[in-house]
Protein: Large ribosomal subunit protein bL33
Amino acid sequence: MSQDNMIKMECTACKRVTYNSHKNKKTIKQRLELKKFCRFCKKHTLHKETK
Structure:
């Protein structure tokens, strides 16, 4: 897997980067927003893609 497709997911509540993922940047133009578990907040929160 190339590093071009890798993205970081940041928790919107505590602003910490908790997940690394990948996406196809040719088909998905906007930033990803997923509800994932944050181990620092200890609950499911919205995670947004960072730069």
The chain has a mean pLDDT of 92. The radius of gyration is 11 Å. The chain has one domain: 3-24+34-49.
